[in-house]
Amino acid sequence: MDVFGVENYTEIDYDELWKRTKSTRNLMRILISMEDADIVKIESPTRIRRIIKPNIVLENFIKIYKPYKTQEQAKIRVATVLSMYSILHELYLLAMLNSRVEIEEKFGPHVPKAPWVATMFLWTGRVTKKTSANMFTEEEMRRFFVKRGLSSTTISNYAAALKATAPYTVQQYIDNIEVTNGNTIKFIIHNDIINILERIYSARVRESERT
Asked: Do the strands 135-137 and 51-54 form a parallel or antiparallel pair, or are they unpaired?
């Protein structure tokens, strides 16, 4: 983000970007996901040279980001939103596939299983739950994740991230976090989110019935 939003690059060589990135992850795999989501463009002017350019999503973010580019919190927020934008796009692609073979062909060993399971619990689970749709406990979440094969480390990471969420921030999903006398952690969901999810779910049900 700093390369395009602060240093005003119009493009950057992949090798230079790789040197600037402090990560052991497969950077090209991440960039391909971002290209699929229209965040960046990957061009190959030669067989061994790859150029990264901003695409429409990143260009729009840069316009918003530039006035706040000196604020560290703005950098973190923009990076987080762009990452989640890419992940949501992958979840959409995953939902459109019809078999395990198709999933393996598309994602290889990088199937976004953990965010898919978390999305199922946080969103779909709200409208299919018979009682207390506007809240869930940490224990309920852990049971759901364990049943679907997530590792204990992944589950703990998701639980820690949710517990660190500050209500009334831009996320607007968790309205409040309560701790009972027995140290049970309850996550209270914003009523507007529940209403929106119920409307979406009802519309999908009606559409299915018509077809």
From this structure: unpaired
Rounded CA gap, 62 and 40, in Å? 12
Q: How far is CA 10 from CA 3, 35, 54, 128, 200, in A?
A: 9, 16, 7, 47, 40
Neighbour-count burial of 57, counting CB atoms closer than 10 A to its CB (0-12 exposed, 13-18 middle, 19+ buried): middle
Angle between helices 56-65 and 72-96 (to 10 degrees): 160
pLDDT at 146 over 90: yes
Which long-range contacts does 201-208 make (Cβ < 8 Å, 24+ apart)? Answer: 201/127, 201/128
- What's the rounded mean pLDDT across residues 184-211? 81
- Provide the β-strand partners of residue 43: 51
How far, CA to CA in Å, does 43 sit from each of 31, 36, 53, 133, 206? 11, 13, 8, 46, 44
At 150, give phi and psi (nearest 5°): -75, 150
- Could you tell me the maximum CA-CA distance found in the chain, to the nearest angstrom? 64
pLDDT tens for 34-57 read 898 899 999 987 778 899 999 998
- Nearest one of 28, 4, 53 to 108, comparing CA atoms: 28
